[in-house]
Amino acid sequence: MFVSENLSVNDKNRLVIGKNDTIELAEKFGTPLYVMDEDLIRKNCRTYKNAMDKYYDGKGLVLYANKAFCSLYTCRIAKEEGLGIDVVSGGELYTAIKADFPMDKVCFHGNNKTYDELELAVKNNVGHIIVDNVYELDTLNDIAGKYQKIMKIMFRIKPGIDAHTHSFVQTGQIDSKFGVALENGEAFDIIEKASKLENVKVTGLHCHIGSQIFDIEPFCKAAEVMMGLIGEVKNKIGIEIEELNLGGGYGIMYTEKDDPIEYDKYIEKISVIVKSEAQKHNVKLPFIYMEPGRSIVASAGITLYTVGGVKDIKNVRKYISVDGGMGDNPRYILYQSEYSAVVANKANAEPCEKVTVAGKCCESGDILLKDAMMPKIEVGDTLAVLATGAYNYSMASNYNRIPRPAVVAVSNGEAKIVIKRETYEDLIKNDII
Ligand SMILES: *Cc1c(COP(=O)(O)O)cnc(C)c1O
Fold first, then answer.
1. Which residues are catalytic?
2. pTM surpassing 0.90?
């Protein structure tokens, strides 16, 4: 009945996550509150990992794309589940270092890594740097030389796939700030250049075609294009590419309109294609990487809010105001993303009216749900917005100087704080004068 499989309703008619009554969680830890179901995160990690073992004989590694929810906690779970991770900034890399993440299983992405970020990666022996452009290639080679190391690199390629998704999260076409293009020969030039440098070793190629994609087809197409490229690189420049990183972007269910594909199906299909394309192009079977972010953590998370105001503007709209909003979930204001919600203290109540759930920030666009069919909502109710585990905490801000909520992890009736709620003191700690 809910968009996330891990939610249920108890005999008090309250929403339950990880065998925890959400109203008790709200009372104990306060609202707004991010709640993460650890068992579901682990289950999702295992689904991907097992599929890699089953369909690709384990000759691949699933990387958790940290940017979906980066913290010591999520790094540790990924580590315990045997996944690698991808990081996209010095801050994410620092978090992984502090979580004692095995550095050989880290891929470092980003279209404009700074000198300091690259140096941090070189010093810490990050497994792969996904090089975006020729300036970065030169800088990395210099830094690696300074530390007398040879860094393994992959190149971010634009395979030119239109993944039919929201234009803000489409990254595979030529008009993109990420990576090098195939059409104009850029990709060959940079690979050839790198092959002559002393302190980098080209091991792989990478692509990431977008996000929240429900179709397997664009991923298959991308795998085909990339395998073709590996063949051409072998023929034209005599370099055998050993690794292929196919990125992430697998869609999840935010509302009933979404129709996600079971996660292991992606690896099943892609494995078949990579194997047949390797034969076709007469190249070695590459070690493959996949980088799911959203699909590992999104459905595991919910956000609990307290309803503080109900404003019924007759014949216009009914607004329900909650004690959070764009500060803890900026996805509506950024992408008009849709969510579903449950009144957690009357979880089985039938939807009966159309309402718009608004946040408390000074922006009219600070909305969590627009025109959603909900049961009757009253002041003091606890609202649970579902599938907020990805790109909520990680995109949160202190706009209006609102402290970021705490994150509580639940599992089998237990609940523990994994990230503290910010205090007002935290908000001013870097203000000097
Ligand atoms: C964002 C990103 C991912 C993860 O995307 P999801 O949609 O969260 O699965 C993986 N790889 C790269 C390079 C990314 O930028």
1. 362
2. yes
